Amino acid sequence: MQLFVSDGAPGNLPVLAAAGRAGARGKLLISTVGPEERVVPFLTRPKLPVLKLDSDRYLFSTSAICRYFFLLSGWEQDDLTNQWLEWETTELQMNL
């Protein structure tokens, strides 16, 4: 797996925390790219962070990446976790 992040991107922190929780650090290549670099070939605008899976599929939503890492860690998500992920996406990132 390869995680693409950019300095100052608001989604970096929750994604890196979720990766650490999943213990994915050893199996994860973290690449820092410029904020205008288009990592996902089929998106028209740059979007970061992005997780490229070993199957060459992309996850480019902060919440989706976090949920994927939670799944890898075996941590069952509850309503509170989903509520905070949704808040982070709709409120926090919109105000940055």
- The count of DSSP E runs of length 2 or more, i.e. the number of strands, is 4
Order of helices and strands: EHEEEHH
Global shape:
globular
Say what the CATH topology is.
Glutaredoxin
Mean pLDDT rating? 85
Number of domains: 1
| CATH class assignment | Alpha Beta
User: Helix fraction?
Assistant: 25-40%
Radius of gyration equals 13 Å
With helices defined by DSSP (H or I, 4 residues minimum), what is the helix count? 3
Protein name: Methionyl-tRNA synthetase 1
InterPro entries: MARS_N
Pfam family, one: GST_N_5
Domain Methionine--tRNA ligase N-terminal: 1-74
What does this entry look like structurally?
By secondary structure, this protein is α+β, with helices and mostly antiparallel strands. It has one domain (2-91): Glutaredoxin. It has three helices and four strands. Strands 2-1-3-4 form a four-stranded mixed β-sheet. The longest helix has 14 residues, at 79-92. The protein is globular and about 35 Å long. The N and C termini lie far apart (28 Å). The mean pLDDT is 85.
Key attributes of the depicted protein:
96 residues; alpha+beta; 3 helices
Question: Gist?
Answer:
With 96 residues, the chain is α+β, with helices and mostly antiparallel strands. 39% of the residues lie in helices and 14% in strands. The chain has a four-stranded mixed β-sheet with strand order 2-1-3-4.
